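sorry for the late reply, my laptop died twice this morning and i had to redo everyting from scratch. anyway the thing you sent over, i finally got around to it. pasting the sequence first so we're on the same page, its 358 residues, then the predicted structure underneath. double check i copied it right bc i was rushing
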Amino acid sequence: MAKIHTIRVEPLTAAIKALVRGFGSSPREVDLVTENLVQANLTGHDSHGIGMLPRYSEAYVEGGLKANAHVKTTLDGGAMLSLDGQAGFGQVIGHEAMEMGIARAKEYGTCILALGNSHHLCRIGAWAEMAVAENLISIHFTNVISRPIVAPFGGGDARFGTNPFTVGIPVPGGEPILLDFATSVMAQGKARVAYNKGEQMPAGRLIDEKGHPTTDPKFAVVAPHGAIVTFGEHKGYGLAVVCELLGGALAAGMACREPATGEKRVLNGMLTIIFDPAKLASGALFGSEMKAFLEWVKASPPQPGFDRVRLAGEPEREMRAKRMAEGIPVDETTWGEILTAAERLKVSPVEINRLAGI
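ok and here's the structure:
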């Protein structure tokens, strides 16, 4: 088992900010990128946290990630927007795009937002959280332009990305519903985390380079590559195709249709639907029906091995509270890759360690 560093949120944030400054980012970009990545770790999604920085640094050096880029409006139809992310940090591009979409949804009651050419948008749930904070519902279909890593149902090699699907629903007087999942049976970053820790994956998640089932995460991380499978067999596969068509072909004008090129950049397209439920239906009726249903569901007696029924978003909130109190675990291999990324960006690894308290 790999050695684990447990780092408190404040020193980890300081260390990551120092590293992100190496991209030449503005102070606002440093803050947005750092907060987004650390929040992903806090929610337990280490696959989308600070461990992405080595990949980002490689993409930046190659020219596939542009620092200090901002969204460019390519179509303004009032309640319909089309935006170009100009290969900028997804943490900035996603934030700016959602700010625009939220403003239009408040004005018109709804907004259909098409975003393309953004570098890695990271945890899509973060963008749903922005909408629910404004009492708006959002639905997101996202595609991934990078090395194909997911096999179609019945297929023996990778043909598309993890293509996440996300929904955020505000709950009056309660915590929001935040459904955010990859259409693959797991995020690719989870295989990276397992590989770095020297762990095997559960059966039924991966195939090797010959299309045979495997539990070795290396086939999702290093050559010769295999593929991750979709969740729910044909069901996850069908939803992955929908995300590719809507988030990729429609929103971004760019679908995954070629073998890996070796480039490190990760581009996302995202079709987002944002709307105000209070303008669509009686707010009181919707709220009361929602509360009654959620209470009914959660009252189900737990199965053996479970303490209670949870709703989408609850596990992340519980993990955030735990890690805020105890610190964020980072395996030694991942931390070493982060220090290498710092060197690549001409930032002192010694200083990164000092700030992190390692």
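The radius of gyration is 20 Å.
thats about all i looked at so far, will dig more tmrw
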